[in-house]
Amino acid sequence: MGSATIFFWLQLPNVTKSNGLTLTIFGIITLIATYNYIRIFNSWSEAFTVASKGGGDYAVQLTGAPFNDGHRYQDWLLTVPLLLIEMILVMKLPQQETVSLIWKLSLASALRVALGYPGEIQDDLSVRWFWWCLAMIPFSYVVFTLAAGLAEATSKQPSPAAASLASAVRYLTMLSWCTYPFVYMVKSVGLAGPAATMYEQVGYVLADVLAMPVFGVLIWGIVAEKSAVEGSGKLLPN
Amino acid sequence: MGSATIFFWLQLPNVTKSNGLTLTIFGIITLIATYNYIRIFNSWSEAFTVASKGGGDYAVQLTGAPFNDGHRYQDWLLTVPLLLIEMILVMKLPQQETVSLIWKLSLASALRVALGYPGEIQDDLSVRWFWWCLAMIPFSYVVFTLAAGLAEATSKQPSPAAASLASAVRYLTMLSWCTYPFVYMVKSVGLAGPAATMYEQVGYVLADVLAMPVFGVLIWGIVAEKSAVEGSGKLLPN
């Protein structure tokens, strides 16, 4: 995440000004994720300890301090709306439509994250499912709006290279966004204890890596290609 | 807050020099807030602990260390006058009027923060109300002066896009400024204990997010639009 931030910002002098805004915001997204992953790392280290059982064997034990996954939701509350703003900026719609989409999608996606959290910290399965269903309402609205908008944006790209990247962005977005509700379900289907927590954390980390640095590099490819077409010189190798 | 600072400073090369001053100061405002929020976070962590009650249940307990909200007032003592200076600079009044307004409003707003603090750290309700009333005198002076000045500034913007942003700035300022006295009242109406402290903190955080990063992005929109009109090239996408 931190490396992605440095990459996006070091590329800033190489793109045109309006494309630079896209890279600036993407570097901020991965910076917020860097900060929150350090907090998650520290909380994880405080919650578990590795104790010697003698004879060179070790066992992982709970320290009694709870693992605080709230940092993950604090991260998403900021980064998910910012990721949507990035996608809307890349679509290059008329200004009025851009502003209206930014308001609607960023509020809906923040609402989705906020509705997911009360379920995430529950052990009662029916309460978990209740908040999952509520969060799926703004989630579905955002995904369907994006699917339609991105299809249109793909057809409007200025060059075949940009169009093929925009198409990759579209499928990656759908894939990574639809991963989260399934990972959330890990604990809702009755898996419990440290193993469930571990699977859930691995799932969220994989989804975040797709949604942030991998997605960001594709967006960088698009803005680099667009800057080249707009005349600031060729950036992508070949 | 930290992300907002980076955003404003990374946008510096894209605006004209006089508009760059506005962005520089705004990055300093959110930087001061970042520093103080780290101090508040640490003080909060020291004041509360999460202890296991066995069986996977946890309880939040007081550690005995007091939660020090003084960092919030130390933050406001610097950031509130700076926020007012930002608004006065955006108004683009004649130089003499600008200087006189900066002195009057920044001293009045610092006085308001200083008068609020002795009440904030009191448990006696009548003493809380006494300081609240005193702080409302400079507060009202600042809000009425701003309301009048911003109405005039809105009508003087160089383009319809800048005028619509200036109008949003005006309403957001009134909304966020008027939130603080109400949040202060949470404890004055007799709510007490950890719940009251939590509601108060959530209220102040929401008001600060509106008054600093959200407000700052609107100000950035205005200076980007003004720089475009003044000829440094189009900045906002579309």
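qc> Chain B has one domain: 2-48+66-230.
qc> done
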